[in-house]
Each structure stands twice: as structure tokens, then as C-alpha cells.
Amino acid sequence: FFGFSPITVHDQPLSFFTQSNNGTGLFNFLDQSTPPTQSITSWLWDFGDGNTSTVQNPTHQYTATGSYYVCLSVANNGGCNDTYCDSVYYNSTVGITEQNSTALLIYPNPANDFITIENTIMAIDEIVIYDITGKTIKTILPKTNTTKVNVSDLSDGVYFIKISNNKQSITKKIIKN
User: Fold this and answer.
1) Torsion over CA: 44, 48, 52, 56 (sign)
2) Which of 88, 54, 59 is nearest to 73 (CA)?
3) Is this prediction's pTM over 0.90?
4) In this structure, how many other beta carbons lie within 10 angstroms of the beta carbon of residue 152?
5) Over the chain, what HEC string results?
6) For the chain: N or C, fewer Cβ within 10 A?
7) 1 pLDDT tier (thresholds 50, 70, 90)
8) What is the pLDDT of residue 86?
9) Cα dist. 86→44, 115, 159 in Å?
10) 103 vs 48, which has greater pLDDT?
11) 172, 106 in Cβ contact below 8 A?
């Protein structure tokens, strides 16, 4: 005789973060992981310089010029985990070279057929759209300050869009309806 037991399947969290800085090497990291934080029970930040933190939204001071590979690992109350990594750059002699995120506009978000990307400061060299597993879905080389991206061929869901020029890059989350 075989018995049956219920099995509980927990959703895997999707780790993601954004960062800002004040030009002096002090970076503010903001956890943007999904599902919302009520089910995420632990955070582990690796700042790429030998320092770590377990605070949800930490600040970190870089003192030497360089590119740092920052990783955020999250775990939820179901025992599932995920890690997201991205690079930040700090130049201790002339300040930070990261783009001011208020100069970058992405709309509409959520989107159905097209998204418009505007950079009010400089031309966009490359746009890369990734799915939630990190697989590259689409690469565009607009070389303009404003461009429309056709997303009608994407399945509904969450994507990450990395916008770059020759000096910096920024990654944002977009939703396709």
C-alpha cells in the first residue's frame, strides 16, 4: 500500500538590485528582488573588494579606483535562493563615471509592443534585453539619445534591460504585458 503526502513547492526568488553613489566612493545598494521581501529571509552582498554585508539595503565605501563585481544572493523562507551580479565603477581621482539614472527614461513600463528609451545626457551605444535567467534575448545598437525598441515578440514576463555607452551602463527591470 502506497501513501500520498502533500508536497509544497515554493517560488524561487529573483535577485536584483540597483545602486546609486555620491561621487566619493560611497555607494547605496537597493534590494529590488522579487517576490517582495516578506518571503525573503536572508541577503548576502559581496562588494567585489573582499567586503560583504547581510543588510537588505547596505551602503559601501570604495576607496580605490576600479571596477567591482557586486553580487547579491537572496534566500526565501522556502529554502530557495538566487544570485544577481553587476559591475560598478569608481574613479577615486575624478569621481564616479556612472550615469545619473534620472537622465535615463524607459517608458511605458509595463509595455505591450514598444518601449521608448531616452538618455538626456548622451547617446546610447548598446541596449541588451535579458530574460529572468540571464539569457540574452535581444541586442540593439542605436547610437542615438532616444530609441524605440520593439518588444511585441517577447513573451509576457519580467526582463532586464542593460543600457550602455562607452563610459557606463545601467540595468533596469521592465515588464512585458
Assistant:
1) negative
2) 54
3) no
4) 9
5) CCCCCCCCCCCCCECCEEEEECCCCEEEEEECCECCCCCEEEEEEECCCCCEECCCCCEEECCCCEEEEEEEEEEECCCCEEEEEEEEEEECCCECCCCCHHHEEEECCCECCEEEEEECCCCECEEEEECCCCCEEEEECCCECEEEEECCCCCCEEEEEEEECCCCEEEEEEEEC
6) N
7) low
8) 87
9) 14, 23, 15
10) 48
11) yes
Encode pLDDT of 52-95 as tens digits.
999 999 999 988 877 888 999 999 888 888 899 888 887 765 43
In contact, 121 and 115? CB cutoff 8 Å: no
pLDDT at residue 162 tops 80 = yes
Counting Cα atoms < 13 Å in the Cβ hemisphere of 84 gives 26
State residue 102's pLDDT score. 54
Look at residue 98 in the predicted model and tell me its pLDDT. 44
CA geometry: angle 44, 168, 126, nearest 5 deg: 110
C-alpha grid cell, residue 32:
529590488
The number of CA neighbours under 13 Å toward the Cβ of 19 is 31
Give the chain's length.
177
Q: φ and ψ at 176, to 5 degrees? A: -105, 125
Q: Count how many Cα atoms sit within 13 Å of the Cα of residue 26 in the half-sphere of its side chain.
A: 3
